[in-house]
Amino acid sequence: QVQFVESGGGLVQPGGSLKLSCAASGFLFGVYTMSWYRQAPGKEREWVALITSTSSNTNYADSVKGRFTISRDNGKNMMYLQMNDLKPEDTAVYYCNYGGDIWGQGTQVTVSS
Length: 113
Prior knowledge:
- This protein is mainly β.
- It contains no helices and 10 strands.
- The chain is 0% helix and 48% strand.
- It is globular.
């Protein structure tokens, strides 16, 4: 069945960096556009970034543009999110998905001094 396992989150100071990983299984990963999403406490889940199946195109929410970089490795069924210059408002649980209804547990990112 479809499964997503997100990892790489943690506690980091403002201005710091983290790299998130997403391990996907149960579907043809290499043919799907994939996205990262996040959900902050008390807020709805929001889209963060996407990458097309061949990595030919990427797109980012305005709030992370220039700071986050999305990438993927179709040979490993993996997707990544390099997050630089992190801000307190980036604090959230981060999820990966192709737009379906099944979600992983996410990985917590906390940006605080």
